[in-house]
Amino acid sequence: MIYSVLLLSFFFAYQHAHAQDDNIVGKAAPDFSLKNVDGNMVSMSDFDNDNGIILIFTCNHCPYSKLYEDRIMELDAEFSPEGYPVVAINPNDPVQYPEDSYESMIERANEKGYTFPYLIDETQEVAKAYHASRTPHVYLLKNDGEGHFTVAYVGAIDDSPKEVSDETVKYVDVAIRSLIANEAFANTYTKAIGCGIKWKQ
Amino acid sequence: MFVVNFWATWCRPCVAELPYFRQAEEKYKDQPLVFLYISLDFPSEMENRILPFLQAKEMNERVYVLDEPKANLFIDRVSPEWSGSIPATLYYRPGEGAVEFHEGDYTFEALDTQIRLLLENP
Questions:
Q1: Are A7 and B66 inside 8 Å of each other by CB?
Q2: Most exposed of A13, A138, A201, B90 (fewest Cβ within 10 Å)?
Q3: ipTM of model
């Protein structure tokens, strides 16, 4: 058997990153109105009095979502009091992935004591509008006032899926703190490994 | 040409399409193709997860584990089109660079068609 642990940095030709579909930083945040695990509809307008929204496409089954689950809960605990609550959206097709069914979402939210909405994107139209491609996938929205939200950050929660250390770069934390301080920040768009969104066939 | 498949043992669609790559390897064994399988499993999972998986699947192919937790550093270098989701497959010709990139899984037919297309258009 041929296998080895290898950093394949020599292998890849460097190319300049060009604009990607999901790089909607600076653009108006697409609206949403989706069903929460408590049976109620949750819409962007419900957050008109907040400073922003930490919108996270995530699900039950994906191992990367599971790795980030506690961190997602911590984001809500830390930033909801500052006017940036988490809103989680499950974009996956429950036919292919029953673990991501609405019933399973209710179970998970109750089991873990989610303090934030966990919405089901049944038609997958919201995921498409945001050009989301994986779970987890974060869109930090800023409230500009009068019901207008702008996308301030797109990408990963931090740069270290496996575990958090002192060296971990916490992209979302930095972004929110910068927004609160009315300062610019460098990492407005990042990428991460994740499970592809399970699109309906 | 290198056919570089990015996968992980924990990724269901990745595991589902591995047999198609192995089928293609067999079908095109007389062609100048090298299939590489790059796992995004954590290197710490080598003994308890990766090796048992490879042994169970009798994978004798070239499997590598990508030992770089800062994915934001390498994703664009594989392809600027890649959002980071797996499975994903890169087609690379030494001297030329990346010639094709596909994010998402393949049926055998789609993979076969893609390879044939690239072989016929050097």
A1: yes
A2: A201
A3: 0.92
Helix (H) / strand (E) element for B7: namely strand B2-7
Query: Which residue type sits at A102?
Result: Y
Each residue of A94-114: pLDDT tens digit?
Answer: 999 999 999 999 999 999 999
Name the residue with tokens 């600027």: B80
Instruction: Return the structure tokens found at A109.
Output: 């939210």
If you ran DSSP here, which 8-state letter would residue A122 be given? T
Q: Which helix (H) or strand (E) holds A155?
A: strand A148-155
Q: What is the pTM of this model?
A: 0.93
3-state helix vs strand vs coil in chain A, percent to 5? 25, 25, 50
Q: What is the mean pLDDT of residues A43-65?
A: 98
Shortest Cα distance, chain A CAs vs residue B6, angstroms: 10
Among B11, B38, B71, whose Cβ lies nearest the Cβ of A191? B71
Which of B75, B82, B83 is the best residue to mutate to test the A interface, defined by the most A CB atoms within 10 Å of its own CB? Answer: B83
Distance CA A76, CA A82 (A): 10
DSSP A27-67: SBPPP-EEEETTS-EEEGGGGTTSSEEEEEE--SS-HHHHH
Q: Does the CB of B14 have a partner CB in chain A at under 8 Å?
A: no
